[in-house]
Each structure stands twice: as C-alpha cells, then as structure tokens.
Amino acid sequence: MWFKNLRVYRLTREFSLSAEQLHELLEPATFTPCGSQDSARCGWVPPLGKHGTQLVHHTDGYLMVCAKKQEKVIPAAVVNEKVEEMAQAIADKEARNVGRKERQNLKDDVLLEMRPKAFARSRLQFAYIAPKDGWVVINASSAKAAEELLENLREAISSLSVVPLSAKNIPQQSMTHWLTAPEAPTHFEFGHECELRDPQESGSVIRCKNQDLCAEEIHNHLVAGMQVHKLGLTWRDGVELMVDDQLAIKRLKFSDAVTEKADNVDADNAAQRFDIEFSVMALEISALLKDLLNAFGGLNTDTASVEEIVAGATREDQAAASEAEEVVF
C-alpha cells in the first residue's frame, strides 16, 4: 500500500466533505466490469479491497479513495494482420484498391468481433485527500493517470478545485544551484541519480545513475550551462526519492526506520494493518512535502484552478452584460 510515485495537487478551496458524504457521492460510480463490447471501464472500489466495503477509508483526517480501471487487451499487431487479410481478400475479389476509410471500417469490424473474447486487464489507482494540509496526493507515475483520477473524482462530487503543486522558486534553477554549490537543502542529502538538460539545445540530455553527483564531471556540465531537471535525494530517516522539474516525485522508497513505525504497532486483522500503514505513510508524506516546498522557496499559492478561472470569466461576462444593459442611447 506504500505509495511509490507522488503527483500532488493543491486544494484551492476548502474540502469539507466527510468520509460518509464522499462515500455516498462515489457510490453511483462504483466499478462494474467491462461488458462484451466495452473497451474500457473505470469506477470506484473500496481501498481495503476484499477486506472492506466503504469507498472511502478515513484515518487521522486523511481520506483514501481507489479507482479501478479495466481495459480490454487486443494486440494492435493482431488487429492489423486481420485487417490486412480482409483488405487483400477484397482487393483480389473485386480487383481494386481498398482505401483508408474502408480499412478503418474493416478495423472497426475486427475490433467488434474480437472485443468480447479479449482478455481484460485491470489496475488500481490510489489517492488520498488531505484537507488539513490542503492537497490531494495521487500514487501515479504520469500526469495523465493522475488527471484521469481527478476528472472522475470531480464528476462524482460535482466540484473539486485543485491545481498542480508548485513552489515559489523554479525547480530546475534551484536543483541546479544545489548541485553547483554543491550543497543539498536542509533535511536532504544528494542521492546517486540525476538528469541534466541543455536549455539551448532541444533533445540534449544527460542521465546519470549510480554516480557521485558532486563529481567534477557533473559540475563541469552545470558550469557549461546544463540544468538539473530530475534529482535523486535522500530525506531525513533515509527516505529515497526522485524529484523532477514539475515537483512530481518518483521512485519513492520508504526506509526501514519508517516502515518499522507501522510494524511496531499490533494489528488484529488486514483492515487494521492497512489503517496503520496509511496513517504512518500520510504523516511521513506530509512532512516530506513541507520540507521539499521549503527547499524550493515555499508554496506558490498564486496559481488559480480551472474552476476559479472559469468562475472569474463568468463573473466578468455577467458584469459586462450588466453594464451593456445600463447603457442609455
């Protein structure tokens, strides 16, 4: 259950729903498996899996949710081969070429035929809402997966004002400064991995793994103008992570000192064990994010959410319409 990748979003409005209220809103969108002609389906499942029935797991003010996505797996090579066979049969029979539009229709027919027999692949996407910290934390390695979960959550509860977490200082400039010094920020040590990019040359990238990041070779690249876009760090009690220029965290590895905090608490069943691990993890992530934001100059609260931008534009349109009505000719 320990998160390995973090995509963090800042709540721009107070989140006041209780666990029970959130469960009721998610319930109509509970996951149901793909039908015979569905290519994919997504819905909410209990974070506790078979050990629970609630769609929201509540611990110490944190609200855990879990989205399940199921997709039919149909290899593209198999589809293309079948389409080619059908197109060739038509060409031989009717002595003509099969055009692009007709090939697309053939492809649709093939997918329609194969979909009921296709294997279904499922994946779980965990996230939790931290109202007291003011953010949503998603265990996702890509922005696309995180945004998909947020969109499903937004549809279920009607409104969710969030923006990607951002700091006051530009991440790549801060990370470049740290390595050039070289001096890691407070509570952090340099890891053994980084990615350097040349801002002047598109595609010029240097990836370093299992390297001393304070070595002269890396320093020379930085002096030459390259910037750090990904940086491996070790935080406090040996927690390892990779942070990038979007403040996304990957390869998060909690140390034994952290996991032992959960192991040292007795649990009578799987549900209690999940509850303990979730509580320890959420508290550690909260402290990690606060230290990380401090390292980047503090939290940037100037970015407006999509909902705030739309609301602002609506207010401006209404004000303009009101002024137009007041004009006397």
From TrEMBL:
Name of the protein described by the UniProt record: Recombination-associated protein RdgC
Species classification: Bacteria, Pseudomonadati, Pseudomonadota, Gammaproteobacteria, Cellvibrionales
Xref: NCBIfam families: PRK00321.1-3, PRK00321.1-5
Localisation per UniProt entry: Cytoplasm, Nucleoid
InterPro entries: RdgC
Chief location category: cytoplasm
Similarity field: Belongs to the RdgC family.
Keywords from the UniProt entry: Cytoplasm, DNA recombination
Function noted in UniProt: May be involved in recombination.
